[in-house]
Design brief:
This protein is α+β, with helices and mostly antiparallel strands and 266 residues long. The chain has two domains: 2-140, Fructose-1,6-Bisphosphatase, Chain A, domain 1, CATH 3.30.540; 149-261, D-Maltodextrin-Binding Protein, domain 2 (3-Layer(aba) Sandwich), CATH 3.40.190. Helices cover 28% and strands 26% of the residues. The protein has six helices and 16 strands. A hairpin with a 4-residue loop joins β7 (124-129) and β8. This is Myo-inositol-1(Or 4)-monophosphatase. Belongs to the inositol monophosphatase superfamily.
Amino acid sequence: MPATDLPLLIEAARESGKIATRYSGSKAQRWDKPDGAGPVTEADLAVNAMLEQRLPSARPGYGWLSEETEDTQHRLSRDRVFIIDPIDGTRSFTEGSSTWAHSLAVAEHGQVTAAVIYLPLRDLLYAAAKGQGATLNGAPIVVSDTQDITTAEILAAKPNLDSRHWCQGRVPQFRRNYRPSLAYRLALVGQGRFDGMLTLRPSWEWDIAAGDLIVQEAGGICTDRLGAPLRLNNPHPRLNGVIAANPPLHRQLADQIDPDSAGIAP
């Protein structure tokens, strides 16, 4: 339940920050996952171990989905599930950057009900509970009110601007910016620091779940690349890209993406 799950997630996120910051990013032991799935460090695993012990113990009826835990079908039988990325932006962590984040969420029947994104090195804690709004360090946040896509600043990796992804090859002329953590990008949209974000490639649920609710509770819209509502805790936990923005900009972005480009890797 959001009212009780959110304080639990906040406490767990702060403890995650204490653990992760004991490691020196560039010196932390690191391995590369199979099949080009990216790096993992001893910090990721230490945070995951703490969360996997603490959160299910506090909510024994909940399922578990984490980037750093081998997935099982057990979670699919649970009404509520934790969706966790112990460190989102591991490459940034290993480079000594401060833009990595802990991303923690609870989803009920496929919809996120409580969420936290925490950047310990920047002292930024974004939080939301369904129906209760979104906050940054306890203060309410709202999405931007930019109406015109040509003046909007959108967080997106450069490959997403390939003309093949856009109707008739016409790429919208927004201003592009970038942050390495998907969770942080979504939080920045909820905060109103940026007008929107998009990623057109398949995205893991643990990168998106917490930010989905934060954007929505801040007054924005968060969908897949085709404008369909996000549903979490899928058998294969990947989403068909993500668009997040205030309602007018979301509509403009979604209307201009070519639905037939889904098979093209951005």
